[in-house]
Write a structure and sequence with these properties.
By secondary structure, the protein is α/β, with parallel strands linked by helices. It has a single domain, classed as Metallo-dependent phosphatases (Purple Acid Phosphatase, chain A, domain 2). Helix 2 runs parallel beside helix 3 and helix 5 crosses helix 7. The radius of gyration is 21 Å and the shape is globular.
Length: 271
């Protein structure tokens, strides 16, 4: 009877807390959400990350400097006004520091549009027009072209170097207890068996999954009003092309912090 009373008073046993999600010692990571052609926000984010990284290094005053990795989570292109500028800026940034870039579903569509008319049609419906017009093509010429003519002309104004750069993007990056992908992972499938189509396109099954795991997935692709931070999932696509807010997350040891750039015309975040 006494044991029963103690049980009733204490209530159900609480779930054990999730273990800390850790970045290896001596490393710092910045992951940037979907840019979608917003060169203005991307340039601001580069400046913000560079300043934040320098400030943290100075504060730590370590003899051995922190090794910093920047990860762009994919969907650099489409919808926003300057996808070509975003690609050029990402390429230039990667020449100055350790920047790793994931392939998103929009990069997949862009590359596929050079090969297949149906993919080109799909690409144009989802922001591809803005991407193509960010390259040196006359808008009047673009408007007069048939799909076949447009696909034949695309290699003339999209540099081969940009296409080679996009073909070389990664699908999955793991550092410590963090896994970085564009869209998510297929629940129940080991990391080394995940397929590119899932990592670039998955949404509902991954977002709804509550399975505990020994790593956290950092991703974009699914737009949220505010970043979603849990022990096992970090979603930071705040819809830059429409909201005017580009979000990144910084990670070091067990610490997490957010960085946000916003254009002057965008409404402030709710809350």
């Amino acid at each position: 009877m006494l044991k029963l009373l103690k049980s009733l008073i204490s209530g159900p046993r609480a779930e054990p807390p999730a273990p800390p999600t850790l970045v290896p010692p001596g490393q710092r990571i910045y992951a940037v959400g979907d840019i979608h052609g917003r060169l203005d926000l991307f340039e601001q984010m580069i400046a913000l990350i560079e300043a934040d990284d320098a400030t943290r290094n100075a504060r730590a005053a370590l003899q051995t400097p922190i090794a910093t990795t920047v990860i762009l989570l994919g969907d650099l292109i489409d919808r926003g006004p300057d996808s070509a500028g975003v690609i050029a800026t990402a390429r230039a940034w990667a020449e100055r520091r350790n920047v790793r870039i994931l392939a998103g579903n929009h990069e997949e569509m862009f590359l596929g549009a050079f090969e297949r008319e149906e993919t080109l049609r799909h690409f144009l419906r989802h922001g591809g027009r803005e991407t193509l017009l960010s390259y040196p093509i006359d808008p009047d010429d673009y408007a007069r072209m048939t799909l076949d003519e447009l696909r034949a002309a695309m290699p003339q104004f999209v540099p081969a170097a940009d296409l080679a750069f996009l073909r070389g993007l990664e699908d999955q990056i793991r550092i410590g207890d963090y896994v970085f992908v564009h869209a998510g992972i297929r629940p129940g499938v080991p990391l080394d068996e995940q397929v590119p189509s899932d990592m670039r396109w998955i949404r509902g099954e991954f977002i709804a999954d509550r399975t505990a795991r020994d790593f956290a997935v950092v991703h974009g692709h699914t737009i949220v009003d505010e970043p979603e931070l849990s022990p096992w999932r970090v979603g930071i696509d705040t819809g830059a092309y429409a909201s005017g807010r580009l979000t990144a997350i910084g990670l070091e040891a067990a610490e997490r912090w957010l960085l946000v750039t916003q254009d002057e015309s965008a409404a402030p975040p709710a809350g």
